[in-house]
Amino acid sequence: MEHAQASEHAEHATTTGIDHRKMLIWAFLGSECMFFGSLIATYLVYYGQSVSGPGPADVLDINTTTVSTFVLLMSSLMMVLAYSAVSKGDVKRFRVWIVCTALLGATFLGFQYFEFTEFGHHKQTFECPPALDRPALEPETACQDGATEYKANYGLTPRTNLFGSTFFTLTGFHGAHVTVGVIWLLSLFGYSFRRGGEDLVRDGGLNVDLAALYWHFVDIVWIVIFTVVYLIGVTVAPV
Amino acid sequence: MATLAGVFNRPYKPTGVWGWISTVDHKKIGALYGVTAFTFFLVGGLEALIMRFQLARAEHGIVSAEVFSQLFTMHALTMIFLAVMPLSAAFFNLVVPLMIGARDVAFPRLNAFSYWVFLFGALILQTGWIVGSSPNTGWFAYAPLTAESFNPSNGMDFYVVGLGVLGVSSVAAALNFIVTIINMRAPGMTLMRLPVFIWMTLVTSFLLVTAMPVITVGLIELYMDRTFGMNFFNVEAGADVILWQHLFWVFGHPEVYILILPAMGIVSEVLPTFARKPLYGYPVVVLSGITIGFMGWAVWSHHMFTVGLGPIANSVFAITTMFIAVPTGIKIFNWIGTLWGGSIDLKTAPLFAIGFIFLFIVGGLSGVMHAVAPSDAQQQDTYFIVAHIHYVLFGGSIMAVFAGIYYWFPKATGRLLSERVGQWHFWLTFLGMNLAFYPMHFLGLDGMPRRNYTYAEGMGWDFWNLVSTVGAFVLAMATLIFVHNFFRSLRKGEPAGDDPWDGRTLEWSIPSPPPEYNFVAIPTVHGRDAFWDQKYGDAHGHVARAPAGASSEDEGHGIHMPSPSILPMITSLGLGIAGYGLVYSFPVAILGAAITMVGTYAWSMEPAAAPDEHGH
Fold first, then answer.
1. pLDDT digit string (tens) for B422-480?
2. Which of B80, B260, B443, B518 could cross-link to B383 by cystine, CB 3.0-4.6 Å?
């Protein structure tokens, strides 16, 4: 162990004074920007291009997603507190905050799971008789007997239309990033029990710092997605 | 977690095959990259020979149209992703730490991971030849030809998953080199004292890190379409297939500079050494390289002039494309300026470097012709384009790669490649290259289309096609001569000594082959051409002091190097298995992902350096 400490000490003597791993994660996040940038670009290119419904305004529920967005933003706050605790050497508080961060992250994922299933089963009411771009009558007798409207399945799946493909792929990959983040945070929680947290605190909590950078990044990406897909998608008609 | 790490007993200084599998030494990883990539270079060459044999005469029935499509697609993919890129990676690995005065890269295990992921990605990409359905859409795989309905075999799945896995390898390697170059320079090695090869490695690495995610997104979308029936490139659902072209070329054009910038770096090292002059206009060469890196992002639509993007878009991309010729031209003038008035020693390495300048100018000129959108409309999809890309990629990248091999082989192995055989190799390559590719200019201007498996008699294309085929076989012969030279020199070559070329950069200040730890004492750098200044003094006649502590009693025994580890290989094996799983069966993909996850955990719990036998 003596030796591992020595080599880690040597690693701090870098040209710029920045730890190798920290520089790596920043460059990696740059790469991730291009990744999500391309997914969002695809979403925008296809915005309003679907030949059939449902569209964003039909299925997206701003209220629900505002709550889940708030949950994710709060997880970033917890993350800051966790890092602050570990950088002061306070392992006990760190454990509390890191579990909070992970739980909020998991809650966000729960919301996403709920949304994804909900969209698939979405039903909507339409005027009678059905217009060409509206779902067929089910049962076929639905519009008879002077009924002015009918209810039909109007679910969104990845195969339904361009909106479905781009929406589920973009938010799905974001969700995958959150999942990786939650696993990473819980791993750090487990790691904090190794030698009473000695290993975690030794380098000023660098391991937590790296996870925090990733976590905040994933959070920021969600802010962009929430704005572009949800807020703009529901309120602004496509050009 | 500690017990998890204990499952994999860590090898301690293993030898033989096990030693190669567990190595984290950048020089050995460089050798792995080099040998693997050169093997794929031969595979890609073989594919080219079959195509050239087919085209040697009109209506030649050697291969069917379908096989021909697979051949030209796999030839391009193999040469770009499995030969030129990893050959550049081989040089990055071998040379970067030595040139900047470092003992290894910043993340030695990540470096091994990059290699193994590359190998597994390459195997996935090549699987088509075994199961009988390789990708057949050209390397750019335009939608909707790639859709499940038009292309039901697994060929495109190997394309999607193979390139995706190779992207992971490239990004991991590039991140590693970015950190290594910025953060592990010897004291005094400021950015403007970095050798140009290091600069070009840095620019290339940034391009890889930013360009690879774009193609990855394109591949993901294609995968979603093919596997889950999504609509990204489904025209019936309102999709615009041009989106694929944009995603592909936004990656694809930086990729062109990913292929050529390392080559320019190699030439910028070889020419000053053999002209015995410092590189002419160093800051301008560096700045040109950076400019090319930035401008490489602003020219992608010149691959799409005939798509119909409209006059404004075409004009903008025509102008940016012409502009990118300026920094490239500046570099060429600087190389010529370096040679000018130098005492040039025409060994094989500088011959290849000069051959590079000559051929790259030809390729560059036809490149500027493509920049003129109306003219490009005539050249699009003809052999004129094939001629252009081979002048820049074979005449450019591959010539520089050979220059680099002749230049650094002695450092890597301690032996010189035979000069006599090397001269034969160069002249035959130069001759074969021009015979094979120059006639394609004529064929293209005469309207011969690319990617057609044959042509009718009486088109007047027979003669130049035959010449081109003869040239291809001359190239094959030259390459065999090189392979012979390589293996013979490995065993019987003349001992090289530390500094066979009277070199200018730090790698020549240490023994050949370098010890595992490279430098006994990390050198202190006082100027550009650090080693030259140590030997002869700088321009003002000041001889820099020998690196402090060079003769210390240390003698390397106290230097702790990262220990070997099989975890990078295990982790990337998981990725490879997951890749096949994505093509054939999802449970297998989950198994692969689980292996990668276990590997990652074990890796993160494993200290970089194991305690040595003395218990330090």
1. 999 999 999 999 999 999 999 999 999 999 999 999 999 999 999 999 999 999 999 99
2. B443
Q: What six digits make up the tokens of B103?
A: 């003992």
The answer to whether A13 faces chain B, any CB pair under 8 Å, is no
Residues 81-110 on B with a CB inside 8 Å of A are 106-107
A155 pLDDT exceeds 50? yes
Instruction: Say how far apart CA B204 and CA B88 lie, in whole Å.
Output: 10
How many H helices and E strands in chain A?
9, 2
Question: Rounded to whole angstroms, how far apart are CA atoms B405 and B419?
Answer: 12
HEC-encoded secondary structure of B338-406: HHCCCCCCCCHHHHHHHHHHHHHHHHHHHHHHHHCHHHHHHHCCEHHHHHHHHHHHHHHHHHHHHHHHH
**Whole-number average pLDDT of chain B:** 92
Report how far residue B138's alpha carbon sits from residue B70's, in angstroms, rounded to the nearest whole number: 8
Residues whose CB falls within 8 Å of the CB of residue A25, separated by 6 or more in sequence, listed in order:
A210, A213, A214
What's the CA gap between B149 and B233, in Å, rounded?
A: 12
Q: Which of B521, B506, B523 is nearest to B188 (CA)?
A: B523
Q: How far apart are CA B365 and CA B379, in angstroms?
A: 14
Rg (CA), chain A: 23
Of B184, B231, B601, the CB nearest to A14: B184
- Cis ω before A54 (30° cut-off from 0): yes
Question: Would you tell me which residues 23-42 of chain A have a C-beta closer than 8 angstroms to some C-beta of chain B?
Answer: 23-24, 27-28, 30-32, 34-35, 37-39, 42
Using DSSP's 3-state secondary structure scheme, residue B613 falls into coil
- Contact predicate A211/A188, CB 8 Å: yes
Instruction: Find the radius of gyration of the CA atoms of chain B.
Output: 24
- In degrees and rounded to multiples of 5, residue A160 shows phi and psi of -60, -55
Q: How far is CA B357 from CA A9, A24, B268, B437, in A?
A: 46, 35, 11, 16
Beta carbons of B177 and B202 less than 8 angstroms apart:
yes
Report chain B residues whose CB lies below 8 A from the CB of A161: 231, 237-238
CB contact burial B291-311 (16+ within 10 A = b; e otherwise): bbbebbeebbbbbbbebebee
pLDDT, tens digit, for every residue of B12-66? 667 788 899 999 999 999 999 999 999 999 999 999 999 999 999 999 999 999 9
pTM: 0.93
